[in-house]
Write the structure tokens for this entry.
Amino acid sequence: MNLKEIKNKVGKTLPKPIDDDLRFSVLVPLIEINGELNLVYEIRSESIRQPGEVSFPGGKIEENENPQYAAIRETCEELGINEENIEVLSEMDYATSKGGSFVHTFLGYIKNVDSAKINYSRDEVSELFFVPLSYFLETEPEKYYMNYYPKADDDFPYHMVNEGRNYNWGSIRYPVYFYKYKNYIIWGLTAKITYGFIKKIT
């Protein structure tokens, strides 16, 4: 392989995480209710991963799928709406989870849909709820920290590492955000994405 071939290969690609199998995409959906903008949240059904947790619509990016379309597709599947009901307003900052997942986030407006008549997928969603945007503009999230320490598998090749078992791997101090709204707790990555959005508009 020569330099020209390498340039042709890399020149056609867009930057993305090296761990491509850990890419996800979510939509941060706004909907108008009684003249006021609200954020739409899901409670995950008992039949899927992380049951009972609050999340935005979204999921894993499929092979050869761009992140924006993945967010739209997942939102349509989970909320039971059509693509024409979603206006993507902006791509927002990337988010990362403690497990190393790389999450693309998009701000979207749900239009021409009555919030009370959204026929969401019961397979993936047990409940929808709506939080006025004004709540987040007036409320700071609670912030706490989790500390994560490295632990290698038993067969880890320490002999290939400088200083071996004495190598200073460090640790990760990871911020965890919480919003309390009525009887709902919005926390973790969903709260982090919410807070990131609110910081952008204030």
